[in-house]
Amino acid sequence: xxxxxxLTINGLATGMLIFLLAxxxxxxxxxxxxxxxxxxxxxxxGAYSGVWFYALTDSFVxxxxxxxxxxxxxxxxxEKLIITPVYGxxxxxxxxxxxxxxxxxxxxKVVWGPNQIAAKVPxxxxxxxxxxxxxxxxxxxxxxxxxxxxxxxxxxxxxxxxIGLIVRAGVMNKEMVxxxxxxxxxxxxxxxxAGAALAALGGALMAxxxxxxxxxxxxxxxxxxFIVVVIGGMGxxxxxxxxxxxxxxxxxxxxxxxxxxxxxxxxxxMAIVLIFRPQGLFTAKG
Amino acid sequence: MKQKxxxxxxxxxxxxxxxxxxxxxxxSRTWTILLTQIxxxxxxxxxxxxxxxxxxxxxxxxxxxxGMGAYTTAIMMKKAEPTMGIFFLSMGVGMLLAGVxxxxxxxxxxxxxxxxxxxxxLAVSGLFLVLAEKWRxxxxxxxxxxxxxxxxxxxxxxxxxxxxxxxxLVYICLRRFVNSPFGRVLVAVRENEQRTxxxxxxxxxxxxxxxxxxxxxxxxxxxxxxxSLRFVNTSVLAMDITLDALLMTIIGGVGTLIGPIVGAGxxxxxxxxxSGLAKEYPIFERWIIFFGIIYILAVIFFPRxxxxxxxxxxxxxxxxxxxxxxxxxxxxxx
Amino acid sequence: MDPILKxxxxxxxxxxxxxxxxVSFEMPARQLKSIIGxxxxxxxxxxxxxxxxxxxxEGEVFFKGKRITTMSAVARTRLGLGRSFQxxxxxxxxxxxxxxxxxxxxxxxxxYQMTRHFFHYKSLMEEAQQLIDLVLLQGREHAIxxxxxxxxxxxxxxxxxxxxxxxxxxxxxPTAGMSLEEVPAILDVIKKIKQKGDKTIxxxxxxxxxxxxxxxxxxxxxxxxxxADGSPQEIMDNETVQNAYLGGLYDENAxxx
Amino acid sequence: ACxxxxxTEKPEASTGDDNGEEVQGTIKIGVLASLTxxxxxxxxxxxxxxxxxxxxxxxxxxxxxxxKIEVVFEDTETKPEVAVQKATKLLEEDEVDFIVGSSxxxxxxxxxxxxxxxxxxxxxxxxxxDSITGSEFNPFIFRTARNSSQDxxxxxxxxxxxxxxxxxxxxxxxxxxxxxxxxxxAAEDLGAEVVLxxxxxxxxxxxxxxxxxxxxxxxxxxxxxxxxxxSPWNQIADLKLQEKGIKISTGAPDIAALSVMEPLIGMxxxxxxxxxxxxxxxxxxxxxxxxxxxxxxxxxxxTPGGMSAAIAIVEALKKSEGDADGNNLISxxxxxxxxxxxxxxxxxxxxxxxxxxLYSIKLEKQDGVPYPVPVLIRELTPDETExxxxx
Amino acid sequence: MKTLLKVDDIHTxxxxxxxxxxxxxxxxxxxxSVLLGxxxxxxxxxxxxxxGLTPASKGSVTFDExxxxxxxxxxIANSGIGYVPEDQGIFGELTVEENMKVAMRKEDDATLxxxxxxxxxxxxxxxxxxxxxxxxxxGQKQMLAMARAFVHENKLLLIDExxxxxxxxxxxxxxxxxxxxxxxxxxVLVEQNFIMASRIGDRYTLIDDGATVQxxxxxELIHDxxxxxxxxxxx
Lengths: 286, 334, 257, 391, 235
Ligand SMILES: Nc1ncnc2c1ncn2[C@@H]1O[C@H](COP(=O)(O)OP(=O)(O)OP(=O)(O)O)[C@@H](O)[C@H]1O
Ligand SMILES: Nc1ncnc2c1ncn2[C@@H]1O[C@H](COP(=O)(O)OP(=O)(O)OP(=O)(O)O)[C@@H](O)[C@H]1O
Ligand SMILES: [Mg+2]
Ligand SMILES: [Mg+2]
Description:
Number of strands of chain B: 2
Oligomer: heteropentamer
Order of helices and strands of chain E: EEEHEEHEHHHHEHEHEEHH
Strand content of chain E: 25-35%
Largest sheet of chain E: 6 strands, mixed
Strand order of the largest sheet of chain E: 6-7-8-3-9-10
Radius of gyration of chain B: 21 Å
Structural class of chain B: mainly alpha
Largest sheet of chain B: 2 strands, antiparallel
Shape of chain B: globular
Bound molecules: adenosine-5'-triphosphate, magnesium ion
Number of helices of chain B: 14
Radius of gyration of chain E: 17 Å
Order of helices and strands of chain B: HHHHHHEHHHHEHHHH
Helix content of chain B: over 70%
Shape of chain E: globular
């Protein structure tokens, strides 16, 4: 029983972390339909700047804030320079964002050097509690809480405002949305910036979790994020949350019970979900 | 229209001729190898273009077929004799294998809509990667293994010619393929699947056949790749290979067939030059940044890929000369 | 004479909404029947059921006595059931000529030929050209379909259907958005085809004046149900049709002209 | 096209008699390393070490047996096909006499056959895969780097003993499997018992399930074989393995990676190199020069390896009196011993693997050093770490 | 009467094509102006140019005494112009309700009340309130497109072929609605249905080959058999 609880809590926490990584992509890829291969770059920049600001200010919270600001700024630059010319054209998006990904990753090395850098958990979140055989790692609990907060925040925003609707409409028919009096360019810019900020936040929270940041971390986790967004159903926050938790739990249980298959677990999960639910778990509808 | 075609073919002929003569006037092995490498990736990229450019399918799992060819050839050369016979046999076996696998995967997955299909191919090829990783008795896992190439290829020039011949052959066959009535339907499927259906063509058949053709050709490229390195490891199944094929196709111009060849050339050559520059000028130490910037500029200046954009420009100039006015003057009926 | 097309208790539901409800009709061969009915009556859906785009929840479709209810759209087209679409549905980035040529290619049953250059099939090209002329699109052969004006797209749509040369033609509002001047020309094309006497035509239209003298019979759909099926005059005199569908427009029109 | 011509004429010109240098002779060495990409840090270490090594071995003259030494570095980008391209370029265009490299086992394996084809000596540094001097071995291959088995033997020597229960944890691919298999053998030879072998997806974010199993097994030691940035140390600490009486042991990596091992302070393991560990002149020179040249930085994990490779080449050439012919060198180098920053190394005759010292260490926190420092417990002599012969 | 919209000799290029080659007309407050012309004449492009979707390369568009030639589309729309495109521009994956929601610039009581009014005009929409726009019938889509433009009290409405695909009785209703709306709103209409055009139009502009051929009062056109025959093929 304790074992099951442990596995579940850890799986849930990993799932939440993955959700945080994927949430930005849910906006950018799921909702705006931009195949953003540079997402991992935004994520890695978030991680590095989080560590850097933390070291600079000696405050974890300020580190996170710094990362989010970095994300917003980078999101602005990315949207204006890279994404604007290629909205609606997936082929061009692949090329230009992959190019930008290379630039972002290499720039990390220019700024912070090619070596990995240690990322520390703040003292008040370090360590774990033990209740009998049940062990709860503080930082994971923190991740779970942040995950739910972010989920709630964005779910509320998408449900209670028209932004989600407008973005989806804009993807379907940009001209028409404009003809209805909406400055869709600005909406896209803001949503992209929000997505980039989420990516950066994900990176900043991921860093202490694994204890290290390195320039190539972006690409690895970007693929995971794409998987989550797709099996969750494009553009659906509840879908992404569910998919992320599914991935987290499946990883946790498989690694324990069927370790031989744990390498393949994400891919298998995705294959199974898509074969039985070709549109993903949820659709973007509230 | 006819004339333009001939002109194009003429140009291509000259290009091929130059490449045939090249090893005789230059004995730079680096160039032979680099060009061989470019030819191999051209074949791979062309196969990808059949999917992306002609049928409108984005696949993130193309490396799986490339890897299948590479492993089949490598394993057969290692386990059996490294002779030309075995080499061609292994190529055939690899292609057959890729054909069968792509057929079933296509049947299973091609009903899915774009993104979902793309991710499913990613999943399947990911599973193949795990398989190669785990089946160590055969693949030696992630480290991979070396093997001997046939005696005939000891002279890399011979291999160069073989690969060049393969490239030309594949190009001609694929050109035929896309310009056949079948190929025209592929384009129709890309444009509007549902309408293709109501014209009496079954889109699924077309998509599956296209993915089989693409898979088989990718496997051929994989076989050649393995022999060119005399080594194989799991990197042939990695996402990077798919992305390379994807980038080459896009940079060159999707749906042009010649574009992927140009794209392969551009990417390999710039990479070669930039990394060469890095040795001489410290500012190029981070040459990958410049490489990334080239992708970005490519999209901005060649939105339809190099070949696609040039073609468009030429077509525009032509049509401007003859001034095809969209608004047709018609005599009033009165 | 046996009906070429027949439905039996044809029904389809979308969620709770019955779009076509228990429609049994018979289509005599080589005739022209028009289908009218208010917006959302189920006309297009009925076409979709005939052409195989949709599968019925209940009921059967017969073609020449053969049950085709579960057949795919592809198979039905090959069998001889061709259709045009209400919402323009062409290959947007191909030229007008290529759009039509593809349809001709299907008619000629050239489906899996992969080794010959398509330029070898000159006749396809010629035939496509003739059809383009027929629907008054000459001069626009090399225009990209997405750049056509709305009316021009409608004409292309018709050319593609005619290219299929199927025994049964299902036309969904072929003249919607076509300019006043050209409607008669298109009607003429339809009339000619009808006069040649080897085709069966089903036509959805809202322009009553144009179908009255063209149709052998008219059927009326109403809330998914078959309300009436009879000669044009019978239908025009039908009071429900008058009140719920026609309104006053055509009376006054008659007065004015 | 004109570039092509230039490139192609150069080699011809330089081989011609009219070239003055030819009389004196030049020894050319090509070094392959990952100078970009994920393994960039390793590549740089090799490069710096190699340059320093040449300088040291030639006494700053950069000449051996009257011949000038030239070095060409090439970036493999950690891609086998690029490695082959660059290696061929080195062999064909630069006409190098030696190949050195590379940072990844894959790149190295891909280049091995070329050494044989061109009959040039290849010094493998720092790739670790056993198969390089095992199943894929050819006589032109010499390795100054330690291999996975040596790591494993060293790892076992650090902790194994009669009755000791050990669990292993490794990434789920060749590197992990080879490492664990070799470790298991070595540990069992020393009388220990390997009670559990856990493998995890190296890219996973969560290792707690594996660690959970290890906790349940309750071994004396957990031996971790790990490489790559995404590491399990935090989670090992979070799950309080050490508090539960499970001692951790692993190989101490380069300094950058050490900095993330804070949770493991106190652990006993082994290392290939840390600049304070070896006690010999070569190392003293290396540390001093390195600090001088690279504004105070100390040599790192693979710096001495690069240096060793350079020393090996120079020593061999001294013995051959400048004869760089691959076939002749093989017999000279087989069994050759040479002094390196890690003490005396000897190329084993059978598989050309350099026998070398490794170090049994303990991680300690030291003032003024921002990362856990490996402190010497004892040096593991080349005899102790001798791996099995596999070729 | 006051001129609300003045289109002055506009030229529009799409790609390398010179589509509009001199279109001029005026729409006066409280009137319905109809653009007439055969397929491909440039009627739709004219409306798009006014909306800023295919900006003019030459000439000017003045709306409400402001030059809007170079303004962004959303800005033009917000200055009080509603637009019903010929392809309806329905967001297929959004429900009818969501389609309406996107169109509403604000959700105050006045707008909601107006929505009620619009829905009375097209009761079908109410029936299919939660249905995906893409699943509507052709005519229902047309209704939805109009409802979206009508939900605000715009100063000007640009409507591209409102009667297309509608049942005769609905055309009646739409005509009534336009007549009703005309009291507060100026309307520019593209219409192929001459019966409808002549009944609700006050002025007409005849376009051919991308240029204005003639413009005048609708009453005159009804009796101008010559023009009707030459450009409209009727009479
Ligand atoms: N795929 C679908 N899902 C849900 N409802 C649908 C679907 N297709 C059609 N409907 C509904 O079925 C009804 C009939 O639609 P249909 O398109 O057949 O009407 P129609 O008679 O062609 O009307 P119109 O004259 O306006 O084209 C409509 O109410 C429509 O909303
Ligand atoms: N994107 C485009 N690219 C090139 N040509 C275009 C484009 N859009 C329209 N055209 C051309 O401009 C001309 C005018 O088109 P427009 O749509 O304005 O005609 P229209 O008068 O609305 O016709 P219809 O009555 O058929 O709707 C047509 O010849 C059309 O082919
Ligand atoms: Mg309809
Ligand atoms: Mg129009």
